[in-house]
Structures are given as C-alpha cells and as structure tokens.
Backbone:
C-alpha cells in the first residue's frame, strides 16, 4: 500500500495534540494531526469551535480558555485530518487510519500520541442499564449539542468533573436530585498531608471550593461518604440505592450519572508493546517515557493524559516538550535552543502538576467501586461477572489475558477499555499479586473496528 | 420505510439539530439502542466518546456503527442492533469494488 509521508504525525486534537502540532509546525516541520472527531479540542474543549455565547456562559471560563489554543492550531499550518479513526500505530512509525470509508496509511518520521483519558470504569450493580451514563458523557452532550436532561438527575461518585458538571447543570437550569459523594471525612484528612502542593496551586484549589460552595448554596442535597452504591431497574435505571450517614437511601431517578475520575487511554501504547508501570496513587497504568515523553520505542512520544493524569494545563507543556525533542532530532533547532525553550515548558508542567497529589488522594476511588463482587458485571461487552473472574483465578488464571481464554472477558468490541483496569485489580485482589505482576491485556490492532471493505478500499487505491 | 426522513426501526424520527446520531436518538427519547449478543439485555450509550461501544446501531444497512461517532443527517435509516451484527449478503462483493 502506498503511504503518504510526513515529518510528525500527532494523534488526538486535545490540548496536548494541538500544542504539539503548533510547536512542531513552528519549527518548520510538516505535521499531520489525526483526530476522530469533526472538530479540534479533544473531550475537554469539545464543541468549543462552534459554541454559542449562552452555552459558553454555562460551561464556564476554563472551557472558554481553550479558544486560544484552538486559534493557534488553526493558524499553525498543521494539516488537521478530521474524522480519522486511527486503527494501528506500528513501531516503524507507520499509521493506519480509517477516513471517509477507506483505510489510509501514513508514514511518519516521528509520532506523538495524544489520545488523552477515559473515564474510569464504575462497576457497580446495574451500571449497564440504559439511563446510566458517565458524567463525562453528559458533559459532552452539553458541550457539543447543548443537550441537558429534562428530568431530575442524580450525580454519583467523586472527582472534579462530577462537581463541575453539577455546577454547569445548575447554570443550565437542570434539576439535580442529589449529589451522592463517595468522598468521606477520612479522605479529607488524608488529603491534608498534600495540602502544601494544593496551596501552591491556590487558584485551582480556590476554584474547586467555589464550585462546591455554589452547589451547596443552591441547596443541592449532598450525601457524603456514600457506600454500597447500586442502580436498581430491569430494563432501565429506576433508582440509585446507597448507604450514607448510617442509613440506607433510595433516590428514584431515570438518569444516574456516574464518575470516579479519569485514567490514561493506553490502547496505542499497549498495542506497541511499550513498557508500562502501575501507578499506585492514580490507580492506573502509565506508559514508561523519558523526560521528553518518548517511549522505549524510538521516535514515538506520548503527551497529555495518555501518560498519566495531569489535566488540561499540563498537557500542552508535554506536547510542546515532545515537539521540541523532535525538532532537535530532525535538525530544526540545536540542543541549546531546545533546552532553553524546554525550561519554560518544564516549569509550566511542574506548576500544573503541583495539585495532583492532593486531588489524587482526596478523590481516590474506593476499592468497592473499583473491584466489584458477586454478580456485578465487569466486562460489559461479554457480560462477565466479578464472580466468574474470581472463579477463573481459582482455576489458576493469573493474568488478564487468561481471562479472555477462560471466559471471553475483554474480547468484545471495546477491547478492554471498560474493564481492563477492573480486571487487573480484581485478579490482584484474588491472587494477592501486585497489579504490576498481574499486568494488562495484550492489546492488538485494529484499535478501532474496521470492515474488510474499508480495508480493501484503501488497498485498491494504493495499488 | 418513510420517505426522506430519518427513521429508527422503520418508524419516523424527529431529529434535532445536534451533531452525533447518539445525541439525536437520546434527545428523541430513545432509551434502548441495542440488545447485547450474550443475554439480550438492553443497552444505551455510556461514554459518548467512542470508548464503550454500547451505542452500537445499524446505520443505512451497516451494523455495529458507533452512534456517538456518526454525524446525524436527514434520511438516515437506523435500526437498533439486536445481538450480534448481521453481515449483509452483499458485503463480500464490496471488497472487489475499488
């Protein structure tokens, strides 16, 4: 198959990808940025390009702040390939993506993976029912389409995005039945050990406190330290049950929005067989990278939340650092210029990451909400339960790949995106091994589904 | 099948001016997008960002399309996906089309 070629291929048009593309293009490199969506911005700035003033006011200043990066990217000269689903990234830096019904191959000299974050799975009883969505999904509906629920909604879990959505919903006039918060008093005490970092990042902390204050002053019922969350219903969600304040609660609602933080999207780095480390504070896998973001695979970099959750302010600095390393390697800047420019980015990155240990401790998702028991579904695609997986462990299964062979766990269309972390932790609990020893699924291309006809259409054109 | 309007399971569907098919179906009050191949349980979108694959529907005769990643347009013929994706009889010949 004949391939187009480019100096730098960037995958993902969120803050990391846009900043990387801008920096690489400014260094005089040819840049192709491939993104699955129709518009740049990633999930954090989704829909910002075409956002009307009213929606902008609802979504708040942090969302609007993305306009600057979007404008820089628009003027950068980087080629933005919209609606491109990358289904394979190879070690030789060739990239295959699905675009307008056919597969296209791109040969890049260097690659920057900016595939961002996914919401952490929230495997509780009933989480597969229609009417249960993630808070991120609800926010995407608001950002992209201005769509909000018409009836009462329950928000449950923990983490900044959950409260931010609550605040945005208040401004949009949505009735919030309650916020069921899994964060309890003990978490605040734990987090206080990291208050130094949080105080250094005072504006971020102050913003968070204002947000929580706004929710409480609007008399949104808050249930703190909630445990034993379960969604009731047979064909669709009907209520959220939980324990808080020493008693059992049941909130009837046809829409329950769950969230317990975000985790790196590691599909590409795993498929490349790059080394990954289990991060015990963020409870997720991080691809192993050097200080520029380069994997143990030469010429392939990772920037943004895909290499550990740092947020929208850390991601651009990481993207620019990768672009600087590449500009130097391809002879566009000397090492002195690279290091001078990098120093500014490294300072910005350190500042952006200062609040992380506080946030990671305060909003550490509870074990019971990460590692389910009994008949709770772990693998949504193949409907494999926690009990079934522990049964495989009892039969000698010691790793996620064996759960595939034992019971198809992780073999459905989502390719483990919705169950991988749960399976690693569940097996770790069942065997007593550390998550690092348990490992992760062997992720294989195609990373996104592609039909034989689409593959053949690309081949035919290349002939 | 209705004339030029968008339809779901052959029933005409009022489609609001939103971007993704998944958003359009949710706004139209559709709660069940598909049935799982394993137990036939109902499912609807969870993530809206292309990760969960619970919004799979059949669009214009092609199964297993992620409704959250497909832009909605007038005249789309949508069917809820019941169990596994059916392979259209004509598909293998499409490979020789290029």
Residues:
């Amino acid at each position: 198959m004949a391939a187009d070629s480019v100096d730098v291929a960037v995958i993902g048009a969120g803050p990391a990808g846009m900043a990387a593309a801008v920096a690489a293009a400014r260094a005089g490199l040819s840049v192709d940025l491939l993104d699955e969506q129709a518009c740049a911005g990633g999930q954090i700035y989704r829909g910002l390009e075409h956002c009307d003033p009213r929606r902008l006011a609802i979504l708040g200043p942090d969302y609007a702040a993305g306009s600057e990066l979007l404008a820089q990217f628009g003027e950068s000269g980087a080629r933005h390939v919209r609606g491109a689903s990358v289904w394979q990234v190879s070690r030789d830096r060739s990239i295959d993506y699905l675009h307008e019904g056919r597969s296209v191959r791109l040969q890049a000299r260097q690659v920057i993976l900016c595939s961002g974050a996914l919401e952490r799975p929230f495997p509780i009883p009933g989480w597969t029912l229609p009417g249960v969505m993630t808070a991120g999904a609800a926010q995407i509906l608001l950002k992209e389409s201005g769509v909000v629920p018409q009836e009462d909604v329950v928000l449950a879990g923990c983490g900044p995005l959950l409260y931010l959505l609550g605040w945005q919903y208040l401004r949009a006039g949505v009735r919030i039945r309650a916020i069921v918060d899994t964060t309890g008093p003990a978490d605040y005490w734990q987090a206080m050990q990291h208050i130094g970092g949080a105080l250094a990042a005072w504006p971020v902390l102050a913003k968070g406190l204002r947000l929580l204050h706004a929710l409480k002053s609007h008399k949104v019922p808050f249930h703190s330290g909630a445990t034993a969350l379960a969604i009731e219903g047979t064909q669709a969600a009907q209520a959220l049950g939980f324990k808080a304040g020493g008693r059992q609660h049941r909130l009837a609602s046809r829409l329950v929005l769950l969230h317990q933080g975000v985790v790196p999207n590691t599909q590409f780095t795993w498929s490349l067989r790059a080394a990954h480390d289990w991060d015990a504070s963020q409870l997720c896998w991080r691809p192993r990278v050097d200080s520029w973001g380069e994997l143990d695979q030469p010429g392939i970099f990772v920037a943004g939340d895909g290499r550990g959750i740092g947020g929208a302010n850390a991601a651009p600095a990481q993207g620019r650092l990768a672009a600087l390393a590449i500009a130097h390697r391809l002879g566009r800047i000397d090492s002195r210029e690279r290091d001078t420019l990098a120093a500014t980015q490294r300072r910005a990155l350190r500042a952006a990451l200062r609040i992380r240990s506080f946030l990671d401790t305060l909003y550490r998702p509870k074990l019971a909400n990460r590692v389910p028991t009994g008949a709770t579904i772990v693998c949504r695609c193949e409907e494999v339960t926690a009990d079934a997986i522990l049964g495989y462990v009892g039969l000698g299964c010691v790793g996620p790949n064996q759960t595939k062979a034992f019971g198809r766990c992780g073999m459905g269309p989502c390719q483990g995106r919705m169950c991988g972390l749960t399976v690693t932790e569940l097996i770790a609990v069942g065997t007593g091994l550390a998550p690092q020893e348990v490992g992760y699924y062997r992720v294989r291309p195609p990373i996104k589904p592609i039909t034989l006809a689409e593959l053949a259409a690309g081949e035919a054109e290349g002939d | 099948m209705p004339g030029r309007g968008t339809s779901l399971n052959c029933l005409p569907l009022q489609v609001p001016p939103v971007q993704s098919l998944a958003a359009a179906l949710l706004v139209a009050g559709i709660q069940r997008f598909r049935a799982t191949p394993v137990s036939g349980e109902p499912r609807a979108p969870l993530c809206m960002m292309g990760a969960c694959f619970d919004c799979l529907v059949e669009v214009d005769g092609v199964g297993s399309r992620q409704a959250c990643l497909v832009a909605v347009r007038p005249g789309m013929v949508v069917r809820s996906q019941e169990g596994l994706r059916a392979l259209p009889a004509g598909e293998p010949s499409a490979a020789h089309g290029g």
In short: Residues 90-98 of chain B have pLDDT under 50 and may be disordered. Chain B has one domain: 7-83.
